[in-house]
Design a protein that fits this description.
Blueprint (H helix, E strand, L loop, with lengths): L2 E7 L5 H17 L3 E7 L5 E3 L12 E6 L4 E4 L2 E3 L3 E5 L9 H8 L9 H8 L1 H10 L7 E5 H6 L1 H9 L6 E5 L9 E3 L2 H11 L5 E6 L3 E9 L3 E2 L3 E5 L6 H6 L3 E4 L6 H17 L5 E9 L5 E7 L9 H8 L4 H20 L5
Parallel strand pairs: 1-2, 1-7
Antiparallel strand pairs: 2-3, 3-4, 4-5, 5-6, 8-11, 9-10, 9-11, 12-13, 12-14, 12-16, 14-15, 16-17
Helix pairs in contact: 1-11
The structure holds adenosine-5'-diphosphate and magnesium ion.
Length: 347
């Protein structure tokens, strides 16, 4: 039994997604006998002791603060101790190493990837550079910095489109849930999509569109890959609406793949887990190109959607694990990783 500080909400565009994931995790950990202290970060960045009975959880309630470097929670002048943090936060300021860095400063055990792995995999440009350097296929891309764009948007658009073939995908380097992403078919659309993506970041990725099936793999420490899952769309691409707001997408587990393809994509996912030195969990997303039948790594998510019907848990369910076992296992892995690292020499 552990006292788990469940941190959710956050100042990212995926705030609501996190509130939905957090309630499932909370119920599962309680069922497994853990004591859960839910703390919601609101959109302004303030921390609250949340009401555990709500579904989805809401980032409101009595104000609390995490005392750094003491590593305790302060609630109305009282301090509350805990053993481990489960950051069910998606996107910037949660999944990107920032919260993890704060926890490291207080020597607090936490679930999931460390600072470096979280930061690098949140950044789609860094991710693709490392993936490409390791010889893992990824869609060809260019990255535009705001400075270059501001200097001469027309010249940059022309240079970027050269050597890539429409349709292209335009993405802010560090977002999630398809926020700020656009599919474009010509130079005019490209101009407006890049300028739109700069609302979210100072670097924007322009990527070759792949006509492929969307295959995902859930990975745990080991690395141990689940059976793959597949996002099946009625049409178009996997937009925010298709992810959360409408019924036009389905998640199929296990994905209908040949034995050889299943084996290939699982071992690519395990290789990526090691490449980025991930820990705890990750969902690694691929495209299976319809014409070449080759897998391309699209992205790495270190805190994937975690409701009981999200892809990550579903893939583990299909591989023979229950949702409760999954959540408890992650808490134990977080504590174990901290113990292991505590034994390292500091001088
Ligand atoms: N290169 C690409 N080719 C085809 N579709 C893409 C490509 N990149 C992104 N997409 C579509 O956009 C969706 C979101 O892109 P992704 O890079 O996964 O961003 P996010 O981190 O927001 O999930 C994908 O699931 C896919 O449907
Ligand atoms: Mg994605």
């Amino acid at each position: 039994m552990a006292r788990v500080l469940l941190v959710f909400g956050g100042q990212s565009a995926e705030h609501e997604v996190s509130c939905g994931s957090a309630v499932s995790v909370l119920r599962a950990l309680e069922t497994a006998g853990h004591r859960v202290i839910p703390v919601g970060i609101d959109r302004e960045g303030a921390w609250h002791l949340a009401d555990p009975s709500l579904d989805p959880l809401r980032a409101e309630g009595r104000p609390v603060s995490l005392l750094v470097p003491d590593g305790v929670l302060s609630v109305g002048g009282q301090t509350v101790g805990f053993d481990v943090v489960f950051p069910v936060l998606h996107g910037p300021r949660g999944e990107d190493g920032t919260l993890q860095g704060m926890l490291e400063m207080s020597d607090i055990p936490y679930v999931g990837c460390g600072v470096g792995a979280s930061a690098v995999t949140m950044d789609k440009d860094m991710t693709k550079r490392l993936v490409a350097a390791a010889g893992i296929p990824t869609a060809p891309w260019r990255t535009i910095r705001r400075r270059e764009w501001d200097a001469d948007a027309n010249a940059v658009t022309e240079a970027v489109a050269h050597g890539l073939h429409y349709p292209l995908f335009v993405k802010p380097v560090a977002q999630g849930s398809s926020i700020g992403i656009a599919r474009v078919e010509d130079a005019a659309q490209l101009m407006s999509a890049v300028s739109g993506a700069f609302r979210y970041d100072t670097r924007v990725l322009v990527e070759q569109g792949i006509d492929g099936r969307e295959i995902e793999v859930a990975v745990l420490d080991g690395p141990r890959a689940s059976l793959p899952g597949e996002v099946v769309l009625q049409d178009g691409w996997y937009t925010y609406e298709a992810k959360y707001a409408d019924d036009t997408s389905q998640f199929i587990t296990p994905a209908d793949l040949s034995e050889a393809d299943t084996k290939t994509v699982r071992s690519m996912a395990e290789a990526a887990f090691e490449l980025f030195d991930l820990s705890g969990l990750a969902r690694i997303d691929f495209f299976l190109d319809r014409s070449t039948r080759k897998f391309f790594l699209n992205e790495v998510n270190t805190m994937p959607g975690f409701t009981s019907i999200s892809g990550f848990p579903k893939m583990w369910l299909a591989t023979g694990m229950t949702y409760d076992e999954l959540c408890s296992g992650l808490v134990e892995a977080g504590i174990r990783r901290h113990e292991e690292r505590s034994r390292l020499a500091i001088r």
